[in-house]
User: Fold these one by one.
Assistant:
Number 1:
Amino acid sequence: MTAPIAGAAPEIAAAKERIEELRREVQRTYIGSVRALDMMMVSLLARGHVLLEGVPGVAKTTLVKAFATALGCSARRIQFTPDLLPADITGTYVLSPRDGTFSLRAGPIFANVVLADEINRAPAKTQSALLEAMQERQVTIEGDRFELPLPFLVLATQNPIDLEGTYPLPEAQIDRFLVRVVMGYPSAREESQMLRTHGVEAPALRAVLSAQDVVTLQQVCSRVHVDDDLHDYAVALTTHTRAHPKVALGASPRATLGLVQAAKANAVLAGRSYMVPEDLRAVAVAVLAHRLVLVADVEGDARVREQIIEDALAKVGYRRGFRAV
């Protein structure tokens, strides 16, 4: 077991308390899967993006709206439709009739939190407008580069059942999402609680963080200690997916980097200043499964992807290296 870094305990404890405050506020209006909320907070701390997948009516949009409100950051919502254009996301230059000059009309991408609702309803040309923003935190408009505000987080939703009028996300874009969270139906107890909470009027949420608070939490997460053995373990997990017989294209090095970043965030949620193997195992399915490209026989089966990651966790052991004193 790795010892905590000296002086890090108070910083981690304060970060954990702020995250728990965020959790409590979101759960005032969102009632459902705790794991979905956990993975969103992991992604927030790790500077990643989230893809929420589930059938209509399971509170995907409710969750992302509540999360954005409680963060206290600027938020914009984009309803993806087949006729949406790239300029509708990034913005464009418009001519001012009064003085004959062009000025930038910024699109909704210029916000701390971007809610991309039903992202798979827009064609690939429009979806590609998000690629540069999600990876490099910048957009290029007619040759001019613009930095996006920090923090920057894309929370996207999609319906995996209704395929009419939808466009599958390209592999390059799916790879930009740090985690994919599948939201199912709530339990009977949760659904009853939802009826009591939203039966009259949904609770009004308040902002418990600010943009600067989020940046500070992300900096705390980046300083979580990781042993070299855990780096090797993360590489072994992703390498296993590349040799699996049902996988045509395994997890990329970007996926390995995302796995470690997400595991560090999971350590912060647990109140630790150091990472342990359980952190990698806790986030492995959410980080890696959606990035796999399967062979034709099982292509499109999300459950097979999850089983492959679970197989990797079962077969790849963690071995702590020997260090001479």
Number 2:
Amino acid sequence: MFDKRVLLNLIRYCTVFEAEEKKDEKTGLVSISKIKKVAAYHQYYAVQKAVNQTIRATDAEDGDRKVGVVWHTQGSGKSLSMVFYSGQIITHPKMKNPTIVILTDRNDLDDQLFGTFGNCVELLRQTPVQAKNRDHIKELLKVSGGGVIFTTIQKFSPEEGSVYDTLSERTNIVVVADEAHRSQYGFKGRLVEVEDGSEIRYGNAKYMRDALPNASYIGFTGTPIEKEDKSTPAVFGDYIDVYDIKQAVDDGATVPISYEARLVKIKLDKEVSSEIDDLVEEISDTNEDQLEKSKKKNATINAIVGHPDRLKDVATDLVSHFEARQEAFEGKAMIVGMTRHICVDLYAQIIKIRPQWHSEDLDKGIIKVIIVVNTPIQ
């Protein structure tokens, strides 16, 4: 760290001051303090590599527009790594006042990242802006330079047809995709049935490249995928830096994860199984309008996966497993359900077994249901 160049880069580009609210439990008063955060070694070196790859990828003549993939495990501070990266790219003389587009596929992620970046205005040297809708993102991107813009990829779906309007042909636009293994595919057209017949539609990733044909793309993810039709490196480029779960555990940055299979079987006939496959395919690479239509078909999933008899078995197993673990050491548990209805129904089954866990008071009770808005999975 005390190499002169490393130390200077660490101070200038990889140190931020975030505002943190603290509530006094006795008085109820809220105070705001500044917290200094400095990049860990894996963040620092990933950012330096990413900056070098960005300069290569954005070259007007030889750049391939694929910066690459930063593969850092969950809990490794990807949000701050994105801040450090953006701050250094913004001031790089070869980038000539770039526009940074921070891309997510869910509104809650967009809000979360926007809050992180908003706390780091001094490093970014400008105030980030969050796109409100399709028209707003078009307005924000039709600029000659500068800007840190937050948007969901769904805002790039055309209102009609299969081609999105070109918004800018600049080569110094960098799209930073969070959770880059999701929603970044669909370059090949597929035939979709519509009211007047059928038409060819693409994924939102293709429409985004219609809008920004000369932009460069970098992906941040903890779980990249490499399949024939969906490959994170194929979309963004080679891996820039890898910080896996073993390294994180060795560093003490996260706790070890162990897996134990506990299966509650679902009995499906071929017709129902095929219908579920079709539902999953519709949700993949979809736009907001298509997603709303798909949500109406959730009744099928609720009826099968969320069948009362199955949820009763799941609840019994969960309660038994959790209490046995508590005897060994104290801890918490998180249950993830496929739909909102399943989450609520499973809660009801659990409190039938342990009614003392329930409380109408938000600050009391052992178990709570948390619904995340604007996301297909809860």
Number 3:
Amino acid sequence: MCELFAMSAAQPADVHLSLEEFSRHGGLAGPHKDGWGIAWYEGADARLVKEPTAASDSACLEFIQDRPFRSTLVLSHIRKATQGALTLANTQPFARELGGRMHVFAHNGDLDGARLRAAHALGTFRPLGDTDSEYAFCALLARLAPLWREGVVPPLAERLALVADFAAGLRALGPANFLYADGDALFAHGHKRTHPGGMRPPGLHVLCRTCAGERGALVTQGLRIASAGPQEVALAASVPLTAAEPWRALAEGETLALRDGRIVSPGG
């Protein structure tokens, strides 16, 4: 299955996303070698870099690794293809504009495509590729679109409730771990994924960290976050990136909203 990672921070941080650990998942070790992508926000917009090739072989990824970027919200995905050809259009994260800002989505799982298409209309959003993940993203945006009609950020409670309800429907179609960001908040939904012994929860983990402000104080495998002042950071990942940190496994079907480096409100 695919690997997900996201970061929400209280203050803009210099993010050194070496993806060393992710590269091992992406081809140096393990089966995850069918594409990778990173999105990081700059205000309402997001820079998106992705390739339909192994992360471990990517010169583009090496370029990003050597040049830290600054953001409060980052989302990354490494693909193990289950549906769709190995093309750029099928490589995650996916991004679309809604309400005057970019929305970004990445999914880990394998949904029943026929049932997904029968159960969820797309509205004005259309996939560029042919994956279940992108179709699910377009269907989610169609559900969210009425909340964004006034051109202002809708209340977080309304967005969280809608995302959690949508996630509940996806779980009936197959493994449905996903990360979704709208530039204001990050939404994390945990379901189940492949573990030794079979498919089971947890499918996603979260970690909240606070650092006093010394540069380079927050370091995990494949990630270094540097901040000039006090910083709060929330991380979400398919598997814990460190052994010593208090990563919390999301319960099956749990949906969280993270904003400014904190878990803002739980859902289900």
Number 4:
Amino acid sequence: MTRPELSEPDDEVGVVADPDDLGEPGPPLDHKAPFYVGFIGATGALVAFFLLSNIAAIGGTLMLIVVSFFIAAGLNPSVEWIEGRGVRRRYAVAVVIVAVLFAVVLFLVAIVPVITDQVAKITANAPDWLDQLQQNRKIQELDDEYQIIDKIKDYVTAGDFLSAIFGGALGFGLAVLGALFNGFIVLVLTLYFLSSLQTTKEALYKLAPASRRDRVTRLGDRIIRSVGGYVSGAFVVAMCAGISSLVFLFVVGLGEYAVALAFVVALLDVIPMIGATIGAVIVTAIAFAEDYRIGIACVVFYLVYQQVENYVIYPRVMSKSVDVPGAVTVIAALTGAALLGVVGALLAIPTAAAILMLTREVFVRRQDAR
């Protein structure tokens, strides 16, 4: 009988296999297999739940990041304006950063003490204004029944009503420290975003496919310019409201509280829709408590000024930054306020403008091409 031949190895005799050769890859997994589909689906659901839970937990931090980015986008037009004068970007950023820090220090040193003194005067005069309200017959009837004036007077003159708002002296101190810390974080993040905005944009644009990268870059730059134009425009509009109020209050005889009230008007004017009205109501109420003639002058002034702001100042300042219909502005502001409060209302309009622009440039164009 002949002996069966033994199978020879694939490699030649005496040839050692390459240790770096890991063999040919096997066939890919069947993506339609029930186990694969179920496993990937369950893993995706768990990852989504984990991400949403952590996003909710760090919502405050994300809010600081978003606010810082919007402020940096608002300062970016100033950087680009300096760049247009032949200055390199890093030097333009340095100039803007120094200007911002100087403005913050000047505000803290020169304006804050004045505002604090005037707020203290308003608080001290509040009981006298409440006494004047008691001369109104209707208010007297309500006060006799519910003692409203006395309760408000005791609350204001107690000296610790601010502490009560924040939950006691310790809570008030923690709230002040928290506000200062958040302000410092926003300032630092704004400076980082402003200095690295160009690099950050380029890194994000590279995530898009090469065939669409140019269009994504154009759309992204348009959105950032729109956000920056809105933020800087809102600051200009608020400054107009504050400066005009400051001059008017000095003219009509409320110079004792002019700086504090003008600051309140400028701060509230940033809030879309209702901010300017709230500021006008606060100033007018204090003016009526001081002298009814000053109050009437405030009513006339703010009625006229708000028309000028709505139909002259705001359209001229915002014409090149945001193009949002009135109905969309109202809906966006209400939705943003419901979701994120005052910050949401501030960010709603540029966000709505960006969504409308993307809808026109992407979805509508695609529908028109069909």
